[in-house]
Amino acid sequence: MSIIKEENYLTGKCLVSMPGMNDERFAGSLIYVCSHSRDGAMGFVVNKKIKEFSFADLANQLPINIVRPMTPIDLYQGGPLDKVRGFVLHSTDYLKGDSIVIGEGIAVSSSVDILTDIAFGNGPKDNLIALGYASWAPQQLEKEIINNDWLVAPSSPDLVFHTKDEEKWQKALDSIGIDLTRLSLPNRGSLN
User: Fold this and answer.
1) pLDDT value at residue 87
2) Are 158 and 106 in contact (CB under 8 A)?
3) Can you give the pLDDT at residue 184?
4) Which of 88, 92, 95, 83 is nearest to 32 (CA)?
5) Angle CA(147)–CA(149)–CA(151) in degrees, nearest 5?
6) Who contacts 181 (Cβ-Cβ below 8 Å, separation ≥6)?
7) What are the φ and ψ backbone dihedral angles of 2, each rounded to 5 degrees?
8) Are 112 and 62 in contact (CB under 8 A)?
9) Which of 139, 151, 140, 154 is nearest to 179 (CA)?
10) What angle do CA 143, 36, 158 make, to 5 degrees?
């Protein structure tokens, strides 16, 4: 297990896409930032479920032998990169092998072991399985924030794991006191 702690970076925060987001892949997205440094950034969309592929489908492609019917487990569109690679954001009550603690009460793992433990009910209390991820080159995310593509909001296990997907984006905006009816977007017009 390792712990990521970098001052003045956005690791452990959330990115809230602005209403005028030009990239359709991220429109209406809330992204949990797992790492941000001078070398770039990486995160996972946490509010968009995958509808056409299930955890059972994923388990069938991995060496996970499920012998009994299991409770449905949601999968999320983590981002546009490497969509076949799985990552698990999870509570810190489960820390094994490749687990990395990101922020208050949230860690990330990418091993088959955590998926097996989740399948058999031995995994973390809270989890969100993401296929794919979002990534930014050095200074790219900072430029996108300056260009009003993203707002930065605090994260919490409650927001990531316990808020309904369709409410996460708005709850993140509320946490930073943003009222969209009063927001004006430079060079993109007003929302009114």
Assistant:
1) 94
2) no
3) 63
4) 88
5) 105
6) 191, 192
7) -130, 160
8) yes
9) 151
10) 110
What is the number of alpha carbons within 13 Å of residue 18 lying toward its C-beta?
20
pLDDT digits (tens, 9 = 90+) for 56-69: 666 666 666 665 55
Spatial separation of the C-alpha atoms in residues 49 and 29, rounded to whole Å: 11
Name residue 169's amino acid: W
Please state, in angstroms and rounded to a whole number, the distance separating the CA atoms of residues 56 and 176. Answer: 37
Mean pLDDT to the nearest integer, 77-94? 92
How far is 70 from 152, CA to CA, in rounded Å?
37
Contact 130, 87 (CB under 8 A): yes
Give me 51's structure tokens. 């509808």
For residue 191, the model assigns a pLDDT of 47
147: its two tokens:
């260009």
Terminal-to-terminal C-alpha distance of the chain: 48
Query: In the block, which residue shows the tokens 């449905």?
Result: 72
For the segment 123-176, what is each residue's pLDDT rounded down to a tens digit? 999 999 999 999 999 999 999 999 989 999 999 999 999 999 999 999 999 999
- Whether the pTM exceeds 0.90: the reply is no
Long-range pairs for 113-116: beta carbons < 8 A, 24 or more residues apart: 114/88, 114/90, 115/58, 115/59, 115/62, 115/64, 115/86, 115/88, 116/64
The pLDDT score that the predictor gives to residue 80 is 93
In the numeric block, the tokens 């797992």 are attached to 34
Block residue for tokens 């602005």: 18
